[in-house]
Design brief:
Strand content: 25-35%
Distance between the termini: 32 Å
Largest sheet: 6 strands, antiparallel
Number of strands: 8
Helix content: 25-40%
Structural class: alpha+beta
Number of helices: 4
Order of helices and strands: EHEEEHEHHEEE
Length: 175
């Protein structure tokens, strides 16, 4: 198994979640060329008063970008999808896009460290463990059934998988 260095990202949306989840994944894979992604789960909101459930997934993006540059790129995706990053209460409001850097890690040796570093995101543990098991080729307990996210050029969400971007495709750069 080859050494891989990158970041675990948590993606979520509870406003137009199917479309916005697809847009976030499309933007990330078009930038990085390859993503490893967990299944997509429907999860009730945590730490906010809302009746809208979130769609959540975990992504491993292999990159040597500094964390500040990756966060700036993720913030731009959120803004393009309608999130007001200047609102000091944006973390507690319904939102079209939320991309959090959960941790940086080297795989396969730091897979166990990743789970212990993500203490605030306890509700994502099942899909974090699933994705890390997929990446390290170890057996992990499967989380609940995933939801299919499907667009004309992208399909994901029912199980952990790798998505590759064909840079020559006519949809390159679509968000």
């Amino acid at each position: 198994m080859r050494q891989r260095q990158g970041y675990l990202l948590g993606l979520g949306s509870n406003l137009g979640p199917q479309d916005n989840m697809a847009a976030m994944v499309t933007a990330l894979v078009s930038e990085f060329g390859e993503l490893d992604i967990s299944r997509v789960l429907k999860i009730p909101p945590v730490g906010m008063n809302s009746h809208r459930d979130f769609l959540n997934t975990i992504i491993f993006v292999e990159t040597d970008l500094p964390q500040t540059a990756l966060k700036a790129f993720c913030n731009q995706i959120e803004i393009q999808l309608g999130r007001d990053r200047d609102d000091p209460l944006s973390k507690t409001k319904d939102r079209p896009a939320d991309i959090d850097i959960l941790c940086s890690l080297k795989l396969p040796e730091e897979a166990d460290i990743a789970v212990s570093n993500v203490t605030d995101e306890y509700f994502l543990y099942p899909i974090i463990r699933e994705l890390l098991g997929y990446l390290t080729e170890t057996t992990e307990v499967s989380p609940p059934e995933g939801l299919l996210i499907k667009t004309s050029h992208l399909s994901f969400g029912e199980t952990a998988t790798t998505i590759y971007w064909d840079g020559s495709a006519s949809n390159k750069g679509i968000l």
